Amino acid sequence: MSGGSLKLTGLTRVHRPGQRPALDDFSLDVPAGSCVAILGPSGSGKSTVLRLTAGLDEPTAGTVRVDGADLAGVVPERRGMAMVFQRPLLFPHLSVRDNVAFADRVRGVPRRTARRRAEEFLELVQLGGYGGRPARALSGGQEQRVALARALAAEPRVLLLDEAFSALDAALREEMHELLGDLRMRLDPTILLVTHDHAEADALADTAAVLDEGVLLQTGPMRSLYARPASLAVCRLLGGRTEVTGVVREGRHESPLGTLELPARVPDGPAVLVVRHEAVTVTSPADGDCVGTVVRLRRRGLRSLVTVEVTGDGGAGGAGTASVDAELGPGEDVPPGATVGLRLPVADRWVVATPAGTTGSPTTAAVSRRR
Ligand SMILES: Nc1ncnc2c1ncn2[C@@H]1O[C@H](COP(=O)(O)OP(=O)(O)OP(=O)(O)O)[C@@H](O)[C@H]1O
């Protein structure tokens, strides 16, 4: 089935004149056979992108192109797209097979052929043998598999997933992630998906586009968004926990953590050091890049997350305090109150410039801390 290429250019949607656009000059390339995630908090415009792409809503400006063809004025059912929503929206009175065969039947495919194809797609979503059951007799996870089979049976040039797995519990969600990975290998579809969950974007997508208040903040592979966020807003949306306010001078960041070398030359000036908790190691005080006190310990399965408070020594970085989060190794524990060292590998240090006169407040105010 291999998918087509999707190109969104300058997409803008203003619902009411004078109001902030729901989406503002949004551009994105989704190459054929790739999976791109749009990631953002509630109300950031994610569904607006999908609705405009699918033709369910009209842009105020901008274009949607599939394989180079401009889709302006093309009705949703002729765009070569299929969409899976958070709720599966199956026909409860039809059998599972006939739900999947529905698009073929509407296209005039004979019933027998449509049903045979439906069975093939049910096999693909690991529901072979379920075709004869009434759709209302399925569990939530099975229903969502049928919705996916129905979308794939339409052989879309582009598959759109709108928070398709977010209503499922964690175990089912993970199963769906694996299934989608498997379907990508077999069918090579082009997928544009929307999620508010960075772990889901990480599990599924080659690239993510981070959206906030209708504005695209950054696009890139998840690993580079995690490690090199363009702003504090992106850092926070991707679960970043450590932000240390300071100043860059001659390639070093000065803060209560001390004077820390940076992996790359950045301009001098106020800057917030961000470092992923997964990259920070807790050591003995003698071995750390800085020394602090454990103020909080949170258990997360086999690993724990600690917050360490570091007080500046009054040198270049001043005498204030800074908090650094670190993920401990499996089974490791350090009690609150312990004095520990922290190692922040040079390659994992990243700074985000702050506009002059601010003290590290977010460049995008709407994002709340998720401590
Ligand atoms: N028909 C409409 N009329 C007016 N404003 C709208 C309309 N549809 C969406 N909006 C506004 O546009 C903005 C973006 O909405 P959108 O549904 O795209 O966000 P979202 O990121 O998908 O949010 P969620 O994750 O909660 O679904 C929101 O502020 C929303 O209130």
UniProtKB/TrEMBL annotation:
Nucleotide-binding listed as a keyword: yes
Alphabetic keyword roster = ATP-binding, Nucleotide-binding, Transport
Q: Does the keyword Nucleotide-binding apply?
A: yes
Pfam short name (any one): ABC_tran
Gene3D superfamilies given in the database record: P-loop containing nucleotide triphosphate hydrolases
Domain ABC transporter, chain residue ranges per copy: 6-238
Which GO-annotated molecular functions does the record name? Answer: ATP binding; ATP hydrolysis activity
PANTHER family tied to this protein: SPERMIDINE/PUTRESCINE IMPORT ATP-BINDING PROTEIN POTA, SPERMIDINE_PUTRESCINE IMPORT ATP-BINDING PROTEIN POTA
In Swiss-Prot or TrEMBL terms, this protein is called Putative spermidine/putrescine transport system ATP-binding protein
Q: What is the protein's species of origin?
A: Blastococcus colisei
| Organism lineage | Bacteria, Bacillati, Actinomycetota, Actinomycetes, Geodermatophilales
